[in-house]
Structure formats: C-alpha cells, structure tokens
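Hi,

Apologies if this is the wrong queue. I'm a grad student, and the batch job for Kinesin-like protein from Stephania cephalantha produced an output file that my downstream script rejects. I'm not sure whether the problem is my script or the file. Here is the sequence I used:
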Amino acid sequence: MYNTNTMTVRTPGTPASKIDRATPASTPGAPKAKEEKIVVTVRLRPLNKREQAIKDQVAWECIDDQTIIYKSTPQERLIAPTTYTFDKVFAPSCLTETVYESVKNVALSALMGINATIFAYGQTSSGKTYTMRGITEKAVNDIYEHILNTPERDFSIKISGLEIYNENVRDLLNLDTGRNLKLLDDPEKGTVVEKLVEEAAENDKHLRHLISICEAQRQVGETALNDTSSRSHQIIRLTIESSLRENSGCVRSFVASLNFVDLAGSERASQTHTDGARLREGCHINLSLMTLTTVIRKLSVGKRSGHIPYRDSKLTRILQHSLGGNARTAIICTLSPATSHVEQSRNTLSFATRAKEVTNNAQVNMIVSDKQLVKHLQKEVARLEAELRTPDPSARIGSEVESKEKDLRIQQMELEIEELRRQRDLAQSQVEEMRKKMLEQQASNPFESPKQVKKCLSFSVSLSPNNEGKALVRGDRTRNTMGRQTMRQSSTAPFTLMHEIRKLEQLQEQLGEEAKHALEVLQKEVACHRQGNQDAAETIAKLQAEIRDMCSVRNASEDVVVRDVDPNRSVGANLKEEITRLHSQGSTIANLEEQLENVQKSIDKLVLSLPSNNDQSNNEENLKSKTHSRKKKMLPLGSSNSANIQNLIRSPCTPLSSSRKVLDAESENKDPENDIMSSDTRQGSEKPTPTKSEDGEVSSREGTPCYQRSSSVNMRKMQKMFQNAAEENVRSIRAYVTELKERVAKLQYQKQLLVCQVLELEANEAAGYDIEDDENPSETQEEAAVSWHLTFLEQRQQIIELWDICQVSIIHRTQFYLLFKGDTADQIYMEVELRRLTWLHQHFAELGNASPAPQGDKPPISLSSSIRALKREREFLAKRLITRLSAEERDALYIKWNVPLEGKHRKLQFVNKLWTNPHDTKHIQESAEIVAKLVGFCEGGNVSKEMFELNFALPSDKRPWYIGWEPISNLIQL
Ligand SMILES: Nc1ncnc2c1ncn2[C@@H]1O[C@H](COP(=O)(O)OP(=O)(O)OP(=O)(O)O)[C@@H](O)[C@H]1O
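Support response: The file is valid. Your script probably expects a header line. Output copied below for reference.
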C-alpha cells in the first residue's frame, strides 16, 4: 500500500528544500556520491506520412543494439563519421516499452533517494513527445508497483510541471498566476523556481491526471514538419519521499526528484519554414538548446573545461543538477530516418556523442531525523572511545592521518554532545525555576493551585514528573498522533468544569449589566445631541431603537434560570443538563454580540455626523490615541470592570468629567485669564450640567459658580468646549462598547472551549474512563508545576511543528512564541492554539486537493492560500529589513545566516530562512527575535495576551497574512 498519510498539498519550491531543511545527505550511513556517465540512447522512428509522401529514403540503420550507421556513399564517408555507438540504439520497429527498459534503472533510482532525469532530445517531429509520454507512463506504473511491493516504507509523491517558452518559465499546474516565474538562487538549494506549485499525488490515477493537465497546458503550434509541434521545453518533476514505517524503529527518509524533460525541437528555423511567432520561438528554443549543447560539450571535456555556462539559459539553470551534478541522467535522442533530415540527425548524434562523456555524481539524498542523528553520534562516540581504550594491534598499523581524523571526529561529537547536555540543563533549570515560581504562587494564593488549573483547562497528555526526558523529545512523533492523543486523554474534573461554566455565566451576567449601563448613559448622551442636524437625528432615532432591542435581549437572558450544581445527581446527568442549557443560551451571547456591533456602527455614524466633526480631525487623532491608551490599560477579561466604566463613562454632557484630561491638556500653556474650565474642573466633580440653548449659547443655572463667572468668559469658546466634551463622551462610550464586544467574544469562545471539554468528558465517561480516579491525591502541587512545565514544553513543540506544517503566519508565530513562556496562566492559550492548529491540520488533510468553497465573503482556507499569504508576509518583512535595520546589522545577519553578501534578493533570501526549522530551538528563538524586531513587537509591549487571542478570531480581520485562520467559533462548529 502506498502512503495514506499523504495529504494533498500545494507547496511552492523545489525538492531540494526538503533535503536542505533536514540533516544533510552526508549523514552517517549515507552512501557516498557515485561517479557515473550519462546514459545515452538513440531512437529511430519510422518514416512518417509526410516523408513517405515525398518518397523520402531511410538513411540510417541500426546494425546492432548499440550501433547506428549512416547508409552513406563512399564520398560521404570521407567527410563525416558514419558509425555511432551508444548505450543502446533502437530501430524504428522498437516499441517504447523496449526504450523504457534502457532508462528504467535511472528512473527508479528516485525511489532510493537518488535524483534522476530523463531527457528527450532531437529535431522537431523526430518523436520526442511520443517517446517521453510512453516513458513517463511506464515509469509511473513501475513507481506505484514498487510502492505496492514495499509495504515497509511510507511513500509520498509530489508533482510540479513547468515549461520554458520564449525563455519564460510557466507553471503548467497554475497558469493563472504562474506565467513568468522567476528563478531564484538559493545558496543551499541552488536554482529555485519561485512560486512553482507542487501538488501531492494521492495515487497513480491522480498522478496521471496531473501529468495530463501539464501536457494539455503546454504550448503547441503547427510547423511545416509537425502539426502539433511542442514549442517549449517541458519539465515534469516528481518528488518522491519515503521513510521506513515508524514501528521499524528507524527514522531515515529518502527524498529525490525525478525529471521528465521533453525538449523543444533542435532544428534550425529555416528547416521548419518558420516566421513570426514560430521564428521567435525558434530563436528562444535555439538559445536554450545552444546553451545546453555548450554545457554538454564543456562537461564532456571533463574538469579542464573551466567555467560551465549553466546560467546562460533558464533550461540549463533549472537542470544544472542533472548535468554533471547530483543526479543520474539518461538522454534519449530521437531521429527521423529520412534522408532529407540527415544533417539534423547528424547534429543530434554529435550532441549524443558528447553527452556520453559527461559524468555525474549522484548520491543518495537521505534525511535522518535529529533525534536519530544524536543517538547515532552517541553510539559512534562510545564505540570510538572503546576502541581507543583497547586498541586493536592491527589498527596500530593504520596511518597516523586516520587516527587524527578519528580524534577530530571525536572532538566534534563531544562538542555536539556538550551542546545537547547544555540544552538539557537549560531545560532542567527552567523546570526548576518554574517549580519555584509555582510554589511561591501557591503560597500567596492557596485557593488556585496549578493542579486545579490543569484539571480545569488542560486536555492534553498529562505527564508524570519522571517522564521528563521522554517529554522533551516526544515532539517528533506528534504530527500524526497529535489529534488522537489530545482528544483521547482528559484530566478534566466534571465539578471543576461546572464551576467554570458558572463563573462564565456570572461574567456574562456582569457584561450584560455593564452593557445596559453603557446604553443608558449613551441614551442620555444621545438626547443631548438632539439639536444636531437631520442626519444626526435619524441616527439617534435608530440608535435608540437598537438600544431598546438590546434591553429586551438582556431581559430575555435574565429569564434563564441558573440552578446550582446538585452534588447528589450523577456527574453525567449534571453535565448533560449543563450542555443543554448552554446550547439553549447559545444565541443570547451571540445576540448581545450582534447588538453591540450595531450599536457601535450607529455610534460611529453619530460621531461622523456631529457638526464640528470635520474640523476636528487633528483633535480626533489625539482623542483616538487617548482612548486607545486608556483602553490598553484596561483588562478586557478582568473579573469586574466597574472601575473601567467609571473611567470611561462620565456624567452625560458634563465637560467637567469626561473631558477632564483633554481639557487639562488643552489648557496647558494657556493664558490663565481664559482658562476657566480648567480651574472649574479642578474644583470638584458635582457640577451642574450646562445645556445648549436654541441659538447655540450655553446656559447654566444662576447662582452656580459657573454662572457667576460666565460674564467674564468667552461664551463661544465655552460652547466649543462643551461640544468637545460631549463628543468625547460619545467616543468614550464607543471605545467602551468596543471593549464590551471583545469581552463578549472572549466569553463566547471560553464557553465553547468549556463545552468541548464537557463533551470530551462525556466521551471519556461513555468509554468507561473513570474521571474521578484521575485525581491522584499523592501528586503534590510541586509535581503538578513540574508536570505543567513539561506539558508546556511539549505543547509548544507541537505548536511549532504544526505552524510549520500549516504554513501559519510567521508574525503570528513570533508573537505567540514570545508571549507565552510557560506561565500557568498560559495554559488556555496553549490549549487554544493547539486546538486551532490541530483543526487546521486536519482540515487541510481532509480538503486534500479540492478547492475550498468560499464561506460568505471570507476567503476560503487552504494550505495553498496560507502559503501564498506567508509568501506575501515574507516579502513584507524583507522590505522592513531596510527600514528597521542598519546596513551593518543587515550584513551581520546575512553573514550569520549564510546569505551571500553579493547575492541578489539578499533580503528575501534571508527572510525565507526564518522559521524554517521547527526542530532547532536556537533557530526558532533567533527567528522570533528577528521577526519581532522587524514588526516592532516587543514582549509586554503593544500586544497583550488577551488581545492576541482575539486578533486571530475576529472575522473582520482581513490582513492578508492571516488568511488561513478562521474565527474560533467557526472552527469549533458548536
Ligand atoms: N517511434 C514512433 N513510432 C510511431 N510514430 C511515431 C514515433 N515517433 C514519433 N511518431 C509520430 O511522429 C509524430 C511527431 O512526433 P512528436 O510530436 O513526438 O515529435 P517531437 O519530436 O516531439 O516534435 P516537436 O519537437 O515538434 O514537438 C507524431 O505524430 C508521432 O505519433
């Protein structure tokens, strides 16, 4: 059976990336590169109808299976060679199947991790496409047959297809955007075709279908010699990866690419009677082929040949590995037998003769997981040490050089082991630190033990303290088992859950109260603006209607009876009831959310329609920033926000309260004579409310301090101040409503999370898992702290790996990574992130190759959309390198990250290296620090943990690099 784990993905890039990201091929146990000549065969086709029609003669004959001769006249024999020998030659009667047998070994070596390329070269209409189609078909058959006969390995096959047409690289699997793809130079991967789509093949049928798409998309035109002449060079690339199945205890993988290359005709333009478009094509075709010929010629001369001009054409750049590099290569040269094409056939044979001399250095591309590598190195060190301690007398005969090499290797290994030890010690000290912290916390808050928190929120594997070593390395095997693992085991206690549900309900209740209060204040505020313009009046009327609606929602929700948990009833009965009740209330929170949304829109409109709004733009900016900074100080999920309400909602229409700060700020540096309001403001808070009269004048009751001074003030200025203050009130309410909305959204989400846990609990109960038994009285709080820290480390590793698999935004990864460092309070966020990513991973796997349907006006989520978004994000970050880092800083980074200082696209090359190795802790830490610097994110700075969660859940968030994320409420689908 072939691999069923393969999810259908579309990823850009070339297969080299896979190798480069893993341990290089020079890993222990990997076979060395093997020198091997290119396999060159020649195929003679039968005379075609055209040739027969003009009574053309057969000029060539295959005299044995390696020799082809030209049936020449004695004179001709003097001027040109007439006999050519190759690895194989095929007479016109030979079937493609026979031709395939000669290149089969090359093709199938891709299954063993060796890159392979099969070319067809020859003049137009000589049978290149005819031959390559058959070869590809047969290779696909054999590949899948091999997979079937090799059950001990997991295989995955991906395909990409491109054509080089008029020196433009076009993606044959994505003609929409892949029309002129760029070639990038990657210092490690070589030439990379940017944005080339790669699709995973589900099975042989699917692979054939994808190949047929490539062929259908290829440029074809009519020439004098061929009605359906291929006008481009086509490369179909299969990337074959395989690894031994897990239970075999060895985690080595092979990865290799297999290229099927159907070149465009090698004829001269005059021969095909081309002009216009065909002539232009011919020029480009010949440019690429000329470079190919030069490259082959130079390579055939061997090492003396000096510079090899791979870069002179796109074809040779892309196929560089296959020409004298790390690949096995076979070339099938196709010939027309006709006398009229002798010259072209000779050219082809001369190319073939050169190609015979080219030597490649193919090697097995093996990936060994870091874990395995460490084990291997440790064994090797132990072996070498033992060898040194008890030297074998025969070994002494070995040269000194050999023993020096050994010493060097031992030193190297010791260094690596030292580094591993250091990392382990670091992790241990972190655990220790965490344990201490937890003990301190428990001392100060004995009611909230870490164990309680864990019981309440964690649904992943609970680790016993002596599992430490295991937990640290467990990340490796998590990809496939993660979903099952997290859902299977639960340590959630039912009563704690119900308690949590109650707490949420209280919070909901409280939010409702606050919303109601805010609306009352808003209602009064709105009343003060009645004398505004017509638009404002309409908005106000609408707003009031919405407020009434909201109040009725609130009243309805108040009708819900919240009963206490009955300790005498069974856990299952209680929980079932809880779920039913939560479901029945489901719409209440959603309604509240929706209503708040409407109110906010109306407030926005109201603010816009205020008469002085236009000339207030600067002021508005100030107010915005003030509102924002005030909002930041508030805790959106605090247990009670009554203090915030007081801060935000002042007495309606009272400049003395709400705009105090604004006015204070405005009055700074002002003439004290005109500074009445500031002096009033400072005097007390219980001032009478001034009102606006018909003519816009502001009046106040006689006898109040305000009135007594009014004669000496500039009334216009005062009126303006009142108006500003009123507007500020509305803005404050708007900010508050925004905050309420966020809190309601969070509440909604927390409720969903709890419901999930309750359901999970039920499932466990149904499966006969005794939840209460899970309570282990002997487990100390200290153990719980250590256990959480280990869980955290494991979860974080899982998250990092899933980020990588799901191609999640690296800005998101950075923020998350830097914010959540293992605090007990981080549990919910870790949990949420893991759930989202597990969902996303499953979603991508289920989606497979199908195009996701758009959901409303939201962009559909798919792996390819995430990849595209991530690409845009990397481009964005690359631009930021200029603005955020000095030239010296950039150069230092390029050097550190092995980006050539002189290379093109250095910035993008560098950014493309960030967050690419989920298994390297140092790499992750450094990537996060760099991205944080580029986006201006600092810990404890402009992103709080609470907002973090919401940022990714808001449906209105259209920032491109967040495509691929869905509101959590949609993900959980409750
Ligand atoms: N060995 C063969 N036996 C029978 N027919 C063949 C053979 N080789 C090629 N043909 C036929 O010759 C015609 C031209 O072949 P094909 O299109 O493969 O040529 P080509 O070299 O790819 O040409 P171009 O470079 O113009 O694309 C086709 O109709 C094909 O079916």
